[in-house]
Amino acid sequence: MTWTGFFKGIESFFVDFAFGPYDALRKIDPTNWTLSNVVSWIFLAVFFVLLFYWLGQLKKFSVNEPEDETLTSQSFL
Question: What value does the mean pLDDT take over residues 8-12?
């Protein structure tokens, strides 16, 4: 396998599979802005849900178990 084949495989994955929903939406109705961007809105909603979940977990960890901030040198010193 050459580097050219590797990069062509990456191209094939994204063009044929990953961006397939965008191509399908483009063929349905190119003048409808909301329909064309529904996949982006779904990704954005999932991102915000996961962001708030992650921030909640960080806050829960910070409140329950404070970080150990003692200053110690390495054992080999």
Answer: 93
